[in-house]
Design goal:
Length: 221
Amino acid sequence: VRDAAARASDALALAEGLAAAVDEAVKPTCIGVYLLCRALLRDGRMVGLAAVVTLLINKLCAARLAPNIQELTRRGAALEAKLRTLHARFRQNVEPIAFCGGGTAERRVIDSCYDSVEEHYKNEVRDGLVYQTVSMFLLYGDMLPLSMMRGLSAIHVWKRSQSLQTGGLSAAEFEDMWYYDNCTKLGFNTLSKIAAVPEKLAVLDGIAQGVVELVEGLERA
């Protein structure tokens, strides 16, 4: 089995990835869906339409601009496993290597593998830069969603509040506007987490492929 000891760490990475996905994607998604539904019940279709349109635009951008996260994750895990294997072999055999004068050759091999890992992650950042920039503009709460939230809140006040006509604001209207604004704000602030669910799944799938390759290799050994 190639790089078996190093690839075994993929199982730990998969478990950590699952835990991180629950904290960073599943929980915020549930909270965001709940809050958006609450805001939707208070002001009809505007909130749901705005959220769905934003997510659809992001999905179209992902289809056109996003790199193959699954393949990048799988290749990155394989390169890291190879580097860990070479480094561990060098440490375990440092005396025979030094005795035979092979230190320079071993260093060239390890440096070449390290350069491959570094180049891979540079390319990963470079390939995803445009998509990440567009995604941040569409989904992060202090960018486009902020303008949408303010617009929805203004429409809500215009439709529901009598303060513009009477010159005063009742306690019930204040509570309604505060509740609506916070549900909308917190709901839209989780859009980035909701949109990141497919990416999290792709990362987990890429890690899981390494675990599957390890298991299949051990079964054939």
